[in-house]
Amino acid sequence: MKHISIIVPKGEAILNSIEGPYKLFRQVNSFLEERGQRPLFRVQLVGLSREAHYYENVFSIHPELIVSDSFQTDLIIIPAIHGDLQKAVAMNQDFIPWMIRQHNAGAELASLCVGAFLLASTGLLNGRKCATHWMFANEFRKMYPAVNLVAEKIITDEHGIYSSGGAYSFLNLILYLVEKYAGRQTAILCSKVFEIEIERGSQSPFTIFLGQKDHEDDAIKTIQAFIEKNFQQKITVDQLASMLALSRRNLERRFKKATANTVVEYIQRVKIEAAKMSFESSRENVNEVMYNVGYNDTKAFRIIFKRITGLSPVQYRNKYNKELMN
Predict the structure, then answer these.
(1) How confident is the model at residue 325, as a pLDDT?
(2) What pLDDT shows up at residue 109?
(3) Tens-place pLDDT, residues 129-166
């Protein structure tokens, strides 16, 4: 039987990222027992103390084990912490040596959503890929520059260290683990019973580009504002560099450092974000939207749109435009 430890964090946490894995893994046991097979998982909640933890001032969770107990686990689930993430990580630092010790003894680790911040604080993700909620990608990169954040991914699997994208996409990671441990058919059964879309690999269709303005380079903020105000026009890197009396190379270096995007990537993302909003709220066709956001090459627009969103312009419009559904 595989032992699964679901962490019960101190402070605030997203309750469904504790309850959801607990329910899914235990449901797998029920499916197996209905077939006359032995249960596969022993699922237990692990805390730093045996005291009940209260979330949202309403729900209480009682850890069954604490990290100082003598036990070996096979899989540690790190749920999504909440609030000020730096403070949340600091509040839960005592989980870190336990996680490292368990991993060195053979346990796998899986972070759900912004649980990636706590996982990354172990150092075990350094040089490895990791996913988290797209809204917190910039903050994650600043706190953990040694980790290869793949913000568009739903699931990463790096030799027994797993992570998931944002919010309810943690269910896709749990299905992935169910398939790994219990087989494809059991994962499909869970997918159908819980109505979870299986094989969803990207959170790009859900991403909203907000720009990275949490930096102190005022000159780059000026360039960002100019791009966002004039995205319909043709904007070149040389034009922007001349605005600040900088060399192109110096502008590119400072822009990348401040925003985690190249200048061209930033321009593209601003244009595509505007196109997405048009597809969501208007009846304009693809070509009309394309021209309105400053593209003249249909092929280039489609390629860039799909690379950023994971969907073609038509697929995106059909997915999100309510008027077209009526």
Answers:
(1) 56
(2) 98
(3) 999 999 999 899 999 999 999 988 999 999 899 999 99
Residues 111, 283: Cα–Cα separation, whole Å: 40
Least confident of 76-80, 118-122, 183-187, 208-212: 208-212
Q: Which one-letter amino acid corresponds to residue 165?
A: G
Copy the structure tokens of residue 256.
């990348």
Which amino acid type is present at position 67? Answer: V
Cα–Cα distance between 227 and 263 in angstroms, integer?
A: 9
CA distances from 289 to 130, 255, 281, 295, 307 (A): 34, 28, 11, 9, 17
Looking at CATH, the fold of the domain delimited by 218-325 is given as Arc Repressor Mutant, subunit A (1.10.10)
Query: How confident is the model over 10-19, as a mean pLDDT?
Result: 93
**Fold classified for 2-205:** Rossmann fold (3.40.50)
User: Sheet holding 161-164: strands in order across?
Assistant: 65-66, 41-47, 2-7, 75-78, 108-111, 161-164, 155-157
| Distance of alpha carbon 220 from alpha carbon 263, whole angstroms | 10
Q: Where are the beta strands (DSSP E) in the chain?
A: 2-7, 41-47, 53-55, 59-61, 65-66, 75-78, 108-111, 129-130, 148-149, 155-157, 161-164
Tokens at residue 195, please?
Answer: 């109505």
DSSP 125: T
Q: Which whole-number Å values give the CA distances from 317 to 119, 153, 311, in the listed order?
A: 36, 22, 9
- With vertex at residue 167, the alpha carbon angle to CA 94 and CA 311, rounded to the nearest 5 degrees, is 135
* Both structure tokens of 216: 């102190």
Q: Is 212 helix (H, G, I), strand (E, B) or coil?
A: coil
Confidence of residue 53 (pLDDT cuts 50, 70, 90): confident
**Ranges of each domain in the chain:** 2-205, 218-325
Beta-strand runs (E) in 127-187: 129-130, 148-149, 155-157, 161-164
